[in-house]
Amino acid sequence: MAQDNKIYITGHRNPHADSVAAAIAYAAYKKEQGFDAIPCVLGKINKESRYLLKRFGFEEPMLLETAQVRLDEVDLDSPCAITPENTIFETVHLMEQEKREGFAVVDKENKVIGWVSKTDLAKIALSDTSYSHAMLRETSTEDIARTIGGRILYSDEKRHLNGKVSILTMTNKDNLEDYDVADRIVITGGNKKAQKILIEKGAGMLIIIWEERVDDSVLKLAEENHCVIISSGYGAMNTSRYLYFAPQVSMIMTTKPMKFFVHELAEDAGKKMARTQFRSFPVVDEQEHLVGYLMRHHILNYNDKQLILVDHNEFSQSVKGIEKARVLEVIDHHRVTDFSTSRPVSFRNEIVGSTCTIIATIFRENQVPIEENLAGLMLGGLLSDTMNLQTPTTTDKDRHTANILAALAGLDLDEFTEELFSVTEDEGESLEELMNRDIIFEDVMGVRLMITKVNVPQVEPYRDRADEMQQALDVLTRNKNADMGILSITSALENRSILFAAGDKANWLFEAYPDTQGEQHSVHEGLVSRKMQILPKLSTVINKYA
Do 281 and 294 meet the contact criterion of CB atoms below 8 Å apart? Predict the structure, then answer.
């Protein structure tokens, strides 16, 4: 459960193939160095990424919902617990044994239903005697016998107890007449005549000390008067002390204890704890099963999550709560923007078309072998991000690395490229799902741009669905509160795109990328990149009017 040594390696909030493959590959590299590295994603992965994972035999990375430490990542105290049927006596001993201030009370399914603390136990000694009498009256004969280390000599379903206790061990039979023992628990000695008198006077239970058996005549009289008889394993003093601890904890437990769920943030839990006088709290899972105990020292001593960012460096594109985490490294090929840390980090930013290119280089620089399936996964990420090595950001290093990875994976580069970009078919997906796969937002001169891209094998069929595409883009643009929405239907295999625009300023896109005369949504040859092609030309137009 503790996460002190874990390193979470994550891409950005739009987990496309390069981002996913980079996280998995760099986690594999760090594991080779002896680190407990965990690849992560920050959202739902796209069809292309799912295909690559399945194709090369990788599990989908864990979903990292926050960079802040959650309680399931804190080294909690062990989930030792008690049941409602445990006696107070057993609970006291367990508290001493485990050195705990309190225990969760759990049912048969290990769900927390109550809490017992030392404060609750103190009530037995400090509260009015009527409190203890009421509990003893309801305590079973078996629990009493077990608590005093005794043996039941006679039990009766019609027993009559008021919960009061008398100790009459040194009194002879002649002056027993002076005592009111009706319905009481009476601790007494082995005098047969005294035992009979106590039974005849209406005692509800006799606890015999220093004797392991009683005379048959006493047992017969006890049966006639419904008087329980127990032989104690202790002397009078300890018997009387322990007797009051025989009730079950269900009689004293708090039934609505303060508890925390594993998904809660440690920081938030600490704030809640600071407002209470208690020092220990149960932590439960979503079904309220006990998983451990949270103590104040846990909140004071937990370590921040350790992160490595791949394929991004902008905190606005990273995991929620990243400012609360410790960033160890960044490996990226994008611009450097709002990146700031309180400690030094290892920062590697290269002018290449894919993060997988950089990570493959790191493997080779350090002479760490790349397994065949990992090489295939990284190749898929590289080809995806460079749109089949055709984006303006593609470099000779990307091309060289692609050939190396293809050789390591035993793949024909051309055949694998066609295979990869054929899985972008939209079969079974709605237009809304397609358009939400890969969205970027940019602010240009105060104009909020939304640019979404759908990768397809061929662009021409989508021109026939122009009205349908336009309606879907209009809705998406409104829902995303964008001033202009742009949809790029792109084929890496054909190295071209068609464009759609929505919003009040939609005509600005077609000034940057005009349609062929007499056409709508013309095919733009060589257009595959939003950031390197669409955005620069569109920004020039926006600067004219904004």
Answer: yes
Please write the tens of the pLDDT for every residue from 282-322: 999 999 999 999 999 999 888 899 999 999 998 888 999 99
Report helix, strand or coil for 1. coil
Boundaries of every domain in the chain: 6-69+305-421, 140-246, 431-545
CATH code that applies to domain 6-69+305-421: 3.90.1640.10
Residue 496: phi, psi to the nearest 5?
-160, 170
Calpha distance 276→272 (Å, rounded) = 7
CATH code linked to domain 431-545: 3.10.310.20
Half-sphere exposure of 192 (CA within 13 A, CB side): 9
Q: What is the largest CA-CA distance in the chain?
A: 125
Q: Name the nearest CA neighbour of 124 among 150, 94, 151, 91.
A: 91
Tell the CATH topology of 140-246: 3.40.1390
Give pLDDT tens digits for 77-128: 999 999 999 999 999 999 999 988 899 999 999 999 999 998 888 877 777 7
Per-residue pLDDT of 344-401, as tens digits, reads 999 999 999 999 999 999 999 999 999 999 999 999 999 999 999 999 999 999 999 9
